[in-house]
């Protein structure tokens, strides 16, 4: 059990399990601070919005700390009143919230004080978001070392992400880094209308996912590079993955093309966006080849384009990097994916889960 103080908790250093002791986690920082990163599951309840916070800061620096505090107190009181009259209106007396701000100071203190005066058992997080962020960094440097991974490999389009999803449905443990990063991990990997999270938010989501895993059981994970889109995978996790046992998917070209046509179908209605992404490869492949790819896209020859991208870009890149970064890939077991049909991935997952279950039973 975490050590609880009368008005705060210093349990971040002991892990995030203590959050289950609360009915809600209230982040009272500004919306911009919340958008960059927050405790997973926290509710944004800013006591100063972005403009108000900037205004108070300007007054503090250019006029007087006293005038800034006076105006700040009025704005904070007004905003807290809004939450009491709306967001918290139907909360019963047993409601128990945890409140945090940047460093566990005035903003969270003001909110928690009012909530306690109402009669709720509100606590503040000692050290605030700053302490939480320090915990995330420290935990991600150590926690991955306690896990046993099976790293799924295969050339682009071999169905690695689909195998992961099928494994999860079959009861296996898996960690989908590309889902957390909102990116498919390639030059065309941006997801439509879904920007990547910030680096800090990615790490928060990753720590939450790792914390839900059972370290006594094997965990399946896709072999990734150090970067997924614009996000860096923590060094300790990369190191643990690269030292882990590997599994190699074998998928024929026709199946790979079919899978990629489904995954990248958003480009069919936005060839200009695809052309911009392909232009990023001009330094590697030359303008002439990229022009040929773009011409295939313009003519709607999507299967031909995908096949050429696999042969001329993705496969050579995979061969250059995979064996170098994952030394155990040479000894990997191979698993054939028979087709693009979902049943093929379900069958592959069952084949993988059966020996795992047998080892666990033994």
Number of strands: 12
Write the element-wise H/E pattern from the N-terminal end onward: EEHEHHEHEHEHEHHEEEHEHHHHHEH
Q: What class do helices, strands and sheet pairing give?
A: alpha/beta
**Count of DSSP H/I helices:** 15
End-to-end Cα distance: 33 Å
- CATH uppermost class of the largest domain: Alpha Beta
Q: Report the sheet-strand fraction.
A: 5-15%
Q: Radius of gyration over alpha carbons? A: 25 Å
Count of distinct structural domains: 2
Helical residue percent band: 40-55%
Q: How is the main sheet built?
A: 5 strands, parallel
Shape: globular
Low-confidence stretches: 1-6
User: Strand arrangement, largest sheet?
Assistant: 1-5-4-2-3
> How is the CATH topology of the largest domain named?
Rossmann fold
Description:
This protein is 51% helix and 11% strand. With 362 residues, the protein is an alpha/beta fold. It folds into 2 domains: 131 residues, Rhodanese-like domain (Oxidized Rhodanese, domain 1, 3-Layer(aba) Sandwich), CATH 3.40.250.10; 215 residues, Rossmann fold (3-Layer(aba) Sandwich). Helix 5 packs across helix 8 and helix 13 packs across helix 14. The longest helix has 24 residues. It is globular and about 70 Å long.
